[in-house]
């Protein structure tokens, strides 16, 4: 079992005993698992300034590791402030035409795969090729071509870099020995991965600068930031550092969205009634919009959105979320007690445990999108759904992810029917080597029936 999931095994007993915190002794430092919702809210939101970091190891001499997901508060805050506008609702909407184009190619490739594989399709890899091409386009500003070439350089390098993220021992050591590790220039990613992503970023940047191209996108924002901050002592933004940021968005966006799409399709293959109801809604929306998806019509796909929410509840891609306490502070709990936390204590939020709590989600192991109607949502504490994290550090790509997954699934469901086959597991088993995200090794095979002739 991935260690990010194993941490959640403490949660049911902690909840039953109304134990707000549990100390897990470690080799170098003890960690604190938090069960209580009031305390979780305090850590993520109310007392964010006392828990502003995730505590990941950063090597400032290595472009890929010095990225927004790893950086300490001092550098994270100005970067996040400057990058957030690129993921505003208006900017995300601006990316829709590109998404529509990539999604059309996705459907064509999906259909070809059905023909070639006698209708038994491994859906994860196809979804990842779709999300790679879209995220590569809107983040790097380039064509990754992984739908047309399954073994494209981007897919291979992205996968390799993603694999190298699974080094929790570095983060455990770093809690105490970060300076020594930096002194010995210990890297998170290998030299080739660093070189690949810096090279691609440099080429894209030079191409735009040389041809005076502007697309009003994330790359444009980075080019402007580079000009403004090149010689800024407080926040120096070199080409390498910007490449690291682009890399974080690329890696953070691809696997998370492709896993969510695959797990939703897997559940729909198991639950035909839910699948038929979703398809009915999608076909109605298409009928009202001259058989064309547009940005506005996504909001009418309320049942499909509930399906996505339920997939993220059942399978939160990041099952445990870390924070580090930076200042001694006191956290209150629902039971009106209080706990004092010492500086440098790693704190773990068991997202999977919270999202499988039967008091918040009755019959938590069942796939029931009806849990996410407006009324049900209004009656639930927002901290009971944390698949995108929470507080100022909440996933910056949430809106983009939701648009990508909704359109991708809507296009697939309008054209194909998904069922279980002999190769489909009864339950999903997550790769233990992939410590921090819920990832199924070997993919997910489904039977796919083509509904519409091309
Ligand atoms: C279903 C899809 C996704 C899920 C489940 C997901 C989940 C998460 C979670 C749990 C965090 C940590 C939040 C926290 O610490 O409070 C996070 C952070 C982040 N995500 Fe996502 N994510 C998704 C898609 C994306 C996409 C599409 C992008 C970019 C294109 C992205 C980029 C990032 C970045 C850059 C951060 C770090 C933010 C910061 O430190 O300020 N994510 N995501």
UniProtKB/TrEMBL annotation:
The keyword Membrane applies. It is a peripheral membrane protein. Pfam families: p450. PROSITE patterns: CYTOCHROME_P450. SUPFAM superfamilies: Cytochrome P450. The keyword ATP-binding does not apply. Heme binds at residue 395. Its cofactor is heme. It comes from the Eukaryota. GO terms for molecular function: heme binding; iron ion binding; monooxygenase activity; oxidoreductase activity, acting on paired donors, with incorporation or reduction of molecular oxygen. Keywords: Endoplasmic reticulum, Heme, Iron, Membrane, Metal-binding, Microsome, Monooxygenase, Oxidoreductase. It is found in: Endoplasmic reticulum membrane; Microsome membrane. Belongs to the cytochrome P450 family. PANTHER family: CYTOCHROME P450, CYTOCHROME P450 6A16, ISOFORM B-RELATED. This is Cytochrome P450. The lineage of its organism: Eukaryota, Metazoa, Ecdysozoa, Arthropoda, Hexapoda. The gene is 106090401.
């Amino acid at each position: 079992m991935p260690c990010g999931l194993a941490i959640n095994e403490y949660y049911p007993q902690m909840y039953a005993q109304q134990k707000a915190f549990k100390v897990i002794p470690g080799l170098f430092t003890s960690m604190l698992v938090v069960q209580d919702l009031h305390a979780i809210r305090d850590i993520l939101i109310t007392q964010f300034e006392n828990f502003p970091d995730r505590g990941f190891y950063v090597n400032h001499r290595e472009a890929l590791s010095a990225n927004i997901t790893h950086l300490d508060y001092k550098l994270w805050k100005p970067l996040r402030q400057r990058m957030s506008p690129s993921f505003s609702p208006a900017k995300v909407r601006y990316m829709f035409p590109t998404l529509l184009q990539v999604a059309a190619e996705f459907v064509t490739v999906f259909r070809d795969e059905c023909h070639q594989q006698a209708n038994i399709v491994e859906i994860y890899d196809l979804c990842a090729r779709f999300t790679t091409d879209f995220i590569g386009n809107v983040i790097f500003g380039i064509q990754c071509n992984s739908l047309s070439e399954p073994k494209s350089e981007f897919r291979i390098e992205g996968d390799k870099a993603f694999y190298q993220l699974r080094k929790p021992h570095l983060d455990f050591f770093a809690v105490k020995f970060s300076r020594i590790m930096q002194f010995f220039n210990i890297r998170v990613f290998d030299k080739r991965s660093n070189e690949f992503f810096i090279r691609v970023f440099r080429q894209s940047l030079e191409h735009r600068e040389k041809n005076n191209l502007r697309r009003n996108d994330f790359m444009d924002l980075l080019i402007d930031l580079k000009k403004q901050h090149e010689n800024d002592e407080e926040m120096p933004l070199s080409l390498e550092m910007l490449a690291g940021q682009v890399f974080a968005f690329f890696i953070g966006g691809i696997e998370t969205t492709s896993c969510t799409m695959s797990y939703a399709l897997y559940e729909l293959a198991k639950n035909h009634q839910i699948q038929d109801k979703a398809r009915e809604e999608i076909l109605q929306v298409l009928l009202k919009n001259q058989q064309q998806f547009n940005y506005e019509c996504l909001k009418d796909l309320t049942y499909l959105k509930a399906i996505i929410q339920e997939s993220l509840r059942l399978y939160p891609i990041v099952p445990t979320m870390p924070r580090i306490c930076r200042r001694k502070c006191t956290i209150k709990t629902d039971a009106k007690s209080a706990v004092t936390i010492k500086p440098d204590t790693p704190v773990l939020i068991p997202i999977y445990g919270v999202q499988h709590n039967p008091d918040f989600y009755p019959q938590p192991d069942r796939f029931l999108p009806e849990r996410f109607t407006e009324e049900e949502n209004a009656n639930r504490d927002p901290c009971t759904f944390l698949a995108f994290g929470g507080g100022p550090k909440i996933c910056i790509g949430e809106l983009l992810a939701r648009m990508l997954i909704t359109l991708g699934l809507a296009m697939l469901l309008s054209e194909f029917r998904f069922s279980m086959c002999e190769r489909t597991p009864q339950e999903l088993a997550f790769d233990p080597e992939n410590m921090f995200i819920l990832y199924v090794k070997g993919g997910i095979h489904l039977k796919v029936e083509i509904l519409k002739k091309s």
